[in-house]
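Need tokens for this chain, all 251 residues.
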Amino acid sequence: MSDLLKLNLPEGFPYAYETHLHTCQASACAKSTGAEMARACKEAGYTGIIVTDHFIYGNTCVDRSLPWSEWVELFCKGYEDAKKEGDKIGLQVFFGWEACYNATEFLINGLSKEWLLAHPEVRDCTIEEQFDLVHADGGMIVHCHPYRVEPYIPEVRLFPDYIDAVETVNATHSCVLSKSHNNPEWDVMAKAYAKEHDFPETSGSDIHSVHLIYGGLAFGRKLEDSRDYCKAILNREPVVLLSGNETAGIA
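Here are the structure tokens for all 251 residues:
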């Protein structure tokens, strides 16, 4: 992985976090393991990553017929391997997931594997119920790539009453290094949506392999944990939204 580019971060924001990352251990569309993703992101200059594998009704590769506790154990394997590797190499690794409702997707942050094991009702809850469940224990819901339209996402559906923030930069849309979902206009519309409803904004690469595209968020301080990440976003701490083009030398 020595051919990886190094992140080009703005002055005053030296701590970069990849907020939207998948592993092949839980996401059927991913190509690399959690440990491989951790090593690549560390080499590229990230301070931390949030593993957000596809949840049970998304593009998961974990057998949905398994009992809940067994499903959760296997679902968390990519995160746990990334965390184990991250602890070795000095990369922070936080847990999250990407929930799916008829192709409308949300990033869930600030909760844990233990929370999932204790809340099997999250498997079949509605979007409204998800909001109440996640909020009851201090979690955060980000509507990711809200305007992406693909064969598997046939229509745009917005739920402003049931989210906390909007992913207004998805690097697969906007970065010249991306090989999928290439439509920067989707991010333009997401930013307008966030502005209309006064939502905090996030950025992530939506990365599925070690071929990084260098999106994410740059902070002026090092985060403590996933709850601290939620606090920073909801309190609107100064942050830089990375599209990947900064590192690619385009912007």
